[in-house]
Amino acid sequence: MFRTGAESLEQQGFAQLAGQRVAVVCNPSSLVRSARRPHRRQHLVDVLRARGIDVVRLFGPEHGLWSTAQDLIAVDGGADPVFGLEVATLYGRSVDSLVLAPEALDGIQVLLFDIQDVGARYYTYAATLCMALQACALRGVRVVVLDRPNPLGGEVVEGNALAPEYRSFVGYIDVPQRHGLTIGEIARLYAAEQSLDVDLHVVPCEDWNPAQYLDEIDFGGNGSPWYAPSPNMPTVATAVVYPGGCLVEGTRLSEGRGTTRPFELIGAPWLDARRYAQAIEALAIPGMHVRPMLFEPTFQKFVGQVCGGVAVEVFDRAVFPAVRSGLALLAAAHALSPADFAWRTETYEFVSDRLAIDLLMGGTAARLCLEAGGTIDDMCADFASGEAQFADHARPYLLYRRTSGVLR
Fold first, then answer.
1. What span, in angstroms and rounded, lies between the C-alpha atoms of 216 and 116?
2. CB of 255 within 8 A of CB of 279?
3. Which of 30, 257, 300, 362 suits 246 as a labelling partner, its CA being 20 to 30 A distant?
């Protein structure tokens, strides 16, 4: 039967944590279907304490311990009213706040990491984990990563390499935009490529088939482990479009934040919904259909304004190229109204000297190609080499057997 790393460790009675002073990096997605009560999901911290594990400190990643903060909003630490423990923030008001402070590890013997990732390079929890590995290596703190499935499966890789000068919090490790790895595999890859002297242990999932999306897994009637890991990632369907939809963040278009369908609703007040849908459909993105849509965001871009745009629907995941679809959304909007289309220029994830779209794409090639009137094929021209290079690099650190795709 499928189990997450947390559930596997719970089956073992958390023996390797016994007698240790433990800190936990977690959020609302850190849920455990207990062996004692398989139909009931409990937060990892509650399960640990019920088993007598000495949890002494919590760390909250971007969006906070309870995912109450929207994107780019600083989160304060302090006493948590639910667990009664001190919470240290890993997403404050400066780039330095992203790194575990040395004093925050005082007295800690084990750092436990358990957060659901979504399989895209820009999603920042992997960066938080990698920074934690660096800090723990310096302090001699053991790191235990409780693995969870990549919700997009582990056999499809799509995207380009990350140029070193475009490394940022939304591109911390050189993996394609859709990388096909689990959070545990990322930890192994990063620790090795950085030659970190860290005591790292990954507790793998049991019976995970990388050919499956998370919502295709048979959970034996005991409920899916998915719980929104951030405010704008409510469903697995959101994660499916996210590797492309997140590119919209690098523009003045709305990516649907402040609606019930973030990253699936794309538009702006100056777009004609029907013409925009027709332009995207003409690009014939496999496995994807769009339909005209009007929507009014309640957060971030265009609050209280009606946006003309599209609803993105994926009808065949097997052939859907998520990153390519995002570039298509941008190209169509640019072609329809070049005078209104613009790149986001504000500080983005603590970076102000490079455009957000270049941080997301890992370089300038795609942006410059679009500005010059290039085709979608031109914008994706460097994908194949990046995917092949990544597969060769990542293969030694895989925890689960792939039967197809470049990671095989």
1. 16
2. no
3. 30
The two structure tokens encoding residue 211: 């050919």
- Closest alpha carbon to 233 in 87, 379, 27: 27
Query: Computed from CA positions of residues 250, 254, 259, 261, in that sequence, does the dihedral angle turn out positive or negative?
Result: negative
Q: Please give the backbone phi and psi of residue 55, each rounded to the nearest 5 degrees, phi first.
A: -85, 115
Amino acid letter, 294: L
DSSP characters over 1-54: --B-HHHHHHHTTTGGGTT-EEEEE--TT-EEE-SSSTT-EEEHHHHHHHTT-E
**d(C-alpha 283, C-alpha 277), whole Å:** 10
On whether the CB atoms of residues 151 and 118 are closer than 8 A, the answer is yes
From the centroid of its chain, how far is CA 96?
A: 21
Tokens 């479009």 label which residue? 241
Cα 172 to Cα 162, 167, 244, 281, 304: the distances in Å are 9, 5, 18, 33, 34
Place of tokens 């499928």: 2
* H or E element in which residue 86 lies: strand 86-89
In degrees and rounded to multiples of 5, residue 193 shows phi and psi of -70, -25
DSSP β-ladder status, 142-146 and 200-203: parallel
Q: Tens of pLDDT along 336-357? A: 999 999 999 999 999 999 999 9
Domains of the chain plus CATH, in order, are: 5-231+389-397 (3.40.50.12170), 238-363 (3.90.1150.140)
- Whole-structure pTM over 0.85, yes or no? yes
Which residues, 6 or more positions from 97, have their beta carbon under 8 angstroms from its beta carbon? 74, 89, 90, 91
Give how far the C-alpha of residue 39 lies from the chain's centroid of Cα atoms, to the nearest Å: 27
How far is Cα 331 from Cα 369, in angstroms, rounded to an integer? 10
Structure tokens given for 128:
């938080």
Among 190, 225, 222, 221, smallest CA distance to 205 is for 225
Helix axes 273-282, 322-336, angle to 10 degrees: 130
- Kindly report, residue by residue over 83-106, the tens digit of the pLDDT: 999 999 999 999 999 999 989 999
Residues with Cβ within 8 Å of 232's Cβ and at least 6 positions away in sequence, in order, are 70, 71, 238, 257, 262, 263
Residue from 386, 350, 337 nearest 158 by CA = 386
Comparing C-alpha atoms, which of 295, 299, 288 is closest to residue 244?
288
**DSSP per residue over 333-358, as a string?**
HHHH-TTT--B--S-BTTB-SS-HHH
